[in-house]
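Reopening this one. Same input as before:
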Amino acid sequence: MWVYESYTDGGSTVEVAVDVNAIRQPFILIEDRQLSGFSGCNNFGGDFDYANGELTPGEVFSEAAGCEPETLMASELAFQDMVWSGEPIDVTIDDGMMRWRRGGAVLVFTHADEPPPEPTLPPQTSVGALNCGDEEVVTEDVPSEGTSAEEVAFAADDRIAEVTIEGDLGHHATGYDSEGNALVVVSFQDVDPFPYRVHTCP
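Same output, byte for byte:
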C-alpha cells in the first residue's frame, strides 16, 4: 500500500492537497500485477507489467467525477497522465518511499500498512461537507436532461433555499436550506447518460 504524497512537473513540486473537501488521502495498491486505489477524486483499477525497474501500465479504468479544490484535481490529473499513457514508468523504492519517473514528471508515494481512513462525520463528498448530522449521505447518479447543476440541486431537496456554484465550468453546486445548512452537493462526472452525481441528506 502506497500513499500518494507529491508530484513534480515542469520542475515544480506540489504536495497532494487533502483538506475538508477531500474524501480521503489518495493511495495505490500494487498486487499481483494489478493496480487499484483512489487517486484523489476517483477510484481506479487496472493491470501492469514490471521488468528491469520499469512499470508499464496496461488497461486502467477510472471513475470520472470532478472534484474541488482545483489543486486536488490537478494532483489526480498528474497521476492519470502517468498511468493512462501506457508508457514505461521508472520505479525506485528506497527507505519507505516509492518514486515514479517519466520524462520530467515525478510522483512520490510513502509506504503504509493500511489504506488511509475513510472520512469521519460530518459526511464528506468530493466537493464539500454536508450538514447531515449522524445520518448517512445518500448518493445517486442522475441524467442531466438538459438541466444545469444548479437546477439539479434545487430539484434534489425541497428544503433548498439557495444554491452556490463552484468550479470554472459551473459543474459543481451546493444547496443550502434557509438556515445555511448544506443539504445537497451536485458534482459533474461526465459519464453518459448519468453525468451528475448527487449527494443529499435524508
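So the earlier flakiness isn't reproducible anymore. For the record, Residues 120-124 have pLDDT under 50 and may be disordered.
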